[in-house]
Amino acid sequence: MEGRRVLQLLCLTFTLISTTLPSLQGLTVSPSRSQFLQGASVSLSCEEDGWTVWRKTKRRERSSCEDGWGKPAGSSCSISYMFTWDSGVYWCESREGAAGSSINITSDTVVLQSPVLPVMEGQDVTLGCRTSAPSTLSASFFKDGVFIGTESTGHMTLRHVSRSAEGLYRCSFRGVGESPPSWISVSAPPTKAAPPTEETPPRSGAPPISITSLQLVVRVFCYLVVFSLNSISTLLTVSLYQDRTKGEEAVFESVCFAGDGADPSSRGQHAGQVVDISHDCLGSGRTSGVGDSVLGGGGFTFSAVLLTSAINQQTHQLNTQPTNERPAH
């Protein structure tokens, strides 16, 4: 019983832990872009307190902001001067090693300024092509390797974007170079809830609870553990009851001894013999557990004592009976 309570408590603990697990923490980049000119300053922040900024570059496999490439401040990290070797994958990570969503950040002499986060359908998106070298040339823009236009100002605006606007964009300056490709994502706008009417009043109550796959696995595991414990407890109870019943039957073994009408002299022949209860001790010609006929013809009585006790009792009765013989003169 105590073991089952402990396991139920553990299941409850696992369920509470799974419901409080944090979601993947995002990384906020300021300014909000993924490409930066060489020499620019960047501020990186984690959405959750206690998380730190990590990165992976070509020069270094994996390192945190505290390793010297940035200036840490709580859950934030600032880079005062971006170099080309600062290009890489950046993400947030907790003390336990959980990693959040990652962002590709590049630093080059020619960069494409584009939104880091997905844009909604119907919005306008402005792309900017910049270079650290002085240039008066027009910037050319490409989508998925296909030329889409040239702008003398270095900026191109995409009007009322749709899902078809998703893809890899880059820009270039003739004689200077081109920017690394940058992916632009387009998301669907949030659905608007229909206003409540008189026929369909708005529902009240707590908001629906979303269950993740981990929480579902933990709950199913808890249900299986509790069900198994209940089944095992029931089987053990039935088994113990059957063993106890068999034990009581084995303890109260019976013996057969002659009734009051039998010849007392014949009882001594079977004194101390225990008769097997698997045989019927009633009637004549039945055999005892030792293979002998205890007494024939007369009825038998079951008792929980040995035949020795019966013989002693009969002997006592014979000794107390009065005798008709006179004493010899």
UniProtKB/TrEMBL annotation:
It comes from the Eukaryota. One of its GO terms (molecular function) is transmembrane signaling receptor activity. Residues 22-187 form the Ig-like domain. One of its GO terms (cellular component) is external side of plasma membrane. InterPro entries: Ig-like_dom, Ig-like_dom_sf, Ig-like_fold, Ig_Fc_receptor, Ig_sub. Residues 1-26 form the signal peptide. Residues 187-206 are annotated as: Disordered. One of its GO terms (biological process) is immune response. Residues 188-197 have a biased composition (Low complexity). Keywords: Disulfide bond, Signal. SUPFAM superfamilies: Immunoglobulin (SSF48726). PANTHER family: FC RECEPTOR-LIKE PROTEIN 4 (PTHR11481:SF64), IMMUNOGLOBULIN FC RECEPTOR (PTHR11481). This is Ig-like domain-containing protein. It comes from Salarias fasciatus. The gene is LOC115382826.
